[in-house]
Automatic annotation (TrEMBL), chains A, B:
Assembly description: Homodimer and heterodimers.
GO cellular component, one term: plasma membrane
Segment forming the signal sequence: none
Keywords: Cell membrane, Membrane, Transmembrane, Transmembrane helix
Protein location: Cell membrane
Keyword Ribonucleoprotein (UniProt): no
Bilayer disposition of the protein: Multi-pass membrane protein
Source organism of the structure: Stephania japonica
Protein name: CASP-like protein
């Protein structure tokens, strides 16, 4: 079960990490092109959270590529423990950031607050990408937890 | 490991379920006493999500009490599978609801939107209780996933 799809060091694992990275980067890009995003704490928090995810997923994509090229199995308990903690922290932060930004975006849509209405589609795109990014990181987090709990590790 | 703290049918499991139920009920109570909560989608969503959690946690608390009184072990694969799905769905919805409401509450605090400012402490109390409730349901969800993945089940 060492090469179960999505586990570290597999091609599907690499695809998951790269998609997390791209979706989070897309979310940041869409948010920063909006003119007034910095006025809203939730949107700044979304950028910070997606920034953390880009950094984390990029590091793990790099590690996956290294493991694939060198044909190494990187399922040792310390590494998998670190992956689990990192994935769960980033997944929780991403969901919270996406949900809080979505709350604000829905408020903008419902009530005429008279600010930044031209930016609303950019906010919506950014939030959608953040939710998609959360789905991919959550998938990774569940796979990591499964490896840790079932003991598919090299001691 | 059948009586690991927090597993279904244990006293700690029952305490977790009852605290989920009470925190979610407290969150709803605090929100509905605010005069204008119904104007904001995120707050209505918080009430719906906390309502679902009260219902779910109450049902599981009842099941835990039954198992404790009758001294039955309720770790069969179908039941634990159901608990995992229910716990993960309610935990995700609770976090999303608490985060989106928190986004709105922070916006109210920062910008003078001229509406319902007397209600802000009630919103904040409701959101804090919702976050605490999420911590307890997430704990239950992790324990359930651990039972499912490690195969501590009766077939």
């Amino acid at each position: 079960m060492k090469d179960f799809p999505g586990t570290p060091g597999t091609f599907t694992g690499l695809v998951l990490r790269v998609s997390q990275c791209l979706l989070a980067a897309g979310s940041i890009a869409s948010m920063v092109t909006a003119a007034c995003f910095f006025r809203y704490t939730a949107f700044c928090y979304l950028i910070a959270s997606m920034g953390l995810q880009v950094f984390w997923s990029f590091a793990l994509a790099w590690l996956d590529s290294y493991a694939l090229v060198k044909k190494k199995i990187i399922h040792n308990p310390i590494l998998v423990g670190l992956f689990v903690i990192g994935d769960w922290v980033t997944a929780t932060l991403s969901l919270a950031a996406a949900a809080s930004s979505a709350g604000i975006a829905v408020l903008f849509y419902q009530e005429d607050l008279g600010v930044c209405h031209n930016d609303c589609p950019k906010y919506q795109m950014s939030i959608s990408l953040a939710f998609m990014s959360w789905v991919t990181i959550k998938t990774s987090a569940l796979i990591m937890l499964w490896i840790l709990f079932t003991g598919n590790l090299i001691h």
